[in-house]
């Protein structure tokens, strides 16, 4: 009985994630995507959300974020001054954005579902002070998209937050854009946008100028207090495990402490795939089968 329930929940989670929005990932990719495994949580978050199920939201409906846009030039000054620190992870300790680094994307963390990073407090104190005055900002970073960079279509895993982008130093051109569920937005200096990152989205910079933005996760407003408390608890206690450091003074969450070992396995898999694709896929699906069996076996015992 328990096995049937687990399988049913997984199927519902898969279908929920796959059919969310107008644009979909390939079903074979969605099957093992992190947004599928967080599907039950995400159904709760969107089901009890105060927000409509739309790709974009009106920034004016979030007046607590207004100080960020009002002080965008101050934030930009600090971002530009530490641009050499906006970079890819130097070690395999940023699972959430690891694939982005290969395409040129860079980041400098300000906070991640807990307190501000010590490195950020030291290097950009004015920006950190502004963020600390806004409790709904759960995570924040400076994010850079150099000329020619492209981020492929993907879903972010967690619907308990929505994504805020504030243009700091941008090409101010339609050649540099993000597309969320087939709706395109081009960044401009001093302008902000809010969107639901669990819809399929992708970004590209076709211009010859670097784009730097303030990138924040904003806690999704829920209909009832008990649902809001669960959302807050989940972010603080689960999402914080994906914290990644800027330097040795910052905390590394449990997920990213383990990621270096998983990445080593992944690297071996890529080597095998390059040598023999058939053998690679046999091992891949065998591994997935063992993982599924390990999940379901206790339910049959």
Question: What does this protein structure show overall?
Answer:
The structure is a single chain. The strands form two sheets. A six-stranded antiparallel beta sheet has the order 1-8-5-10-3-2. It is of the alpha+beta class and 301 residues long. It has helices at residues 2-18, 27-30, 34-37, 39-47, 66-70, 72-81, 98-101, 118-123, 125-132, 225-237, 254-275, 277-300, and strands at residues 56-57, 106-112, 137-145, 150-154, 161-169, 176-180, 183-186, 192-195, 201-205, 211-219. Helix content is 42%, strand content 20%. It starts with a helix and ends with a helix. Strand 6 (176-180) and strand 7 form a beta hairpin. The protein has one domain (1-301): B-lactam Antibiotic, Isopenicillin N Synthase, Chain (Jelly Rolls, Sandwich), CATH 2.60.120.330. Helix 1 crosses helix 12 and helix 11 crosses helix 12.
Detail the topology: elements first, then pairings.
Blueprint lengths: L1 H17 L8 H4 L3 H4 L1 H9 L8 E2 L8 H5 L1 H10 L16 H4 L4 E7 L5 H6 L1 H8 L4 E9 L4 E5 L6 E9 L6 E5 L2 E4 L5 E4 L5 E5 L5 E9 L5 H13 L16 H22 L1 H24 L1
Antiparallel strand pairs: 1-8, 2-3, 3-10, 4-9, 5-8, 5-10, 6-7, 6-9
Helix pairs in contact: 1-12, 11-12
């Amino acid at each position: 009985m328990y096995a049937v329930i687990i399988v049913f929940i997984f199927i519902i989670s898969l279908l929920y994630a796959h059919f969310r929005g107008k644009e979909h990932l390939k079903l074979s990719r969605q099957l093992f995507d992190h947004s599928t495994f967080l599907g039950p949580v995400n159904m709760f978050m969107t089901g009890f959300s105060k927000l409509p199920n739309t790709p974009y939201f009106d920034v004016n409906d979030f007046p607590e974020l207004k100080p960020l846009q009002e002080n965008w030039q101050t934030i930009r000054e600090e971002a530009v001054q530490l641009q050499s620190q906006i970079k890819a992870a130097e070690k395999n300790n940023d699972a959430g954005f690891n694939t982005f680094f290969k395409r040129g994307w860079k980041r400098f963390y300000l906070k991640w579902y807990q307190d501000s990073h010590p490195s950020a407090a030291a290097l950009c104190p004015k920006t950190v002070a502004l963020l600390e005055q806004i409790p709904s900002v759960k995570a924040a970073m400076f994010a850079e998209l150099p000329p020619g960079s492209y981020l492929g279509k993907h879903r972010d895993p967690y619907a308990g937050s929505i994504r805020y982008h504030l243009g700091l130093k941008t090409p101010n051109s339609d050649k540099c854009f993000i597309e969320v569920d087939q709706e395109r937005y081009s960044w401009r200096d001093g302008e902000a946008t809010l969107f639901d990152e669990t819809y399929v989205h992708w970004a590209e910079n076709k211009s010859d100028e670097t784009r730097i933005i303030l990138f924040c996760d904003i806690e999704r407003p829920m209909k009832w207090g008990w649902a809001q408390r669960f959302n807050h608890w989940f972010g603080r206690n689960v999402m914080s495990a994906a914290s990644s450091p800027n330097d040795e003074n910052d905390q590394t969450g449990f997920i990213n402490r383990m990621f270096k070992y998983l990445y080593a396995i992944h690297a071996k898999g890529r080597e095998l795939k390059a040598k023999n694709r058939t053998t690679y896929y046999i091992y891949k699906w065998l591994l997935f089968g063992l993982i599924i069996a390990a999940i379901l076996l206790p339910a049959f015992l």
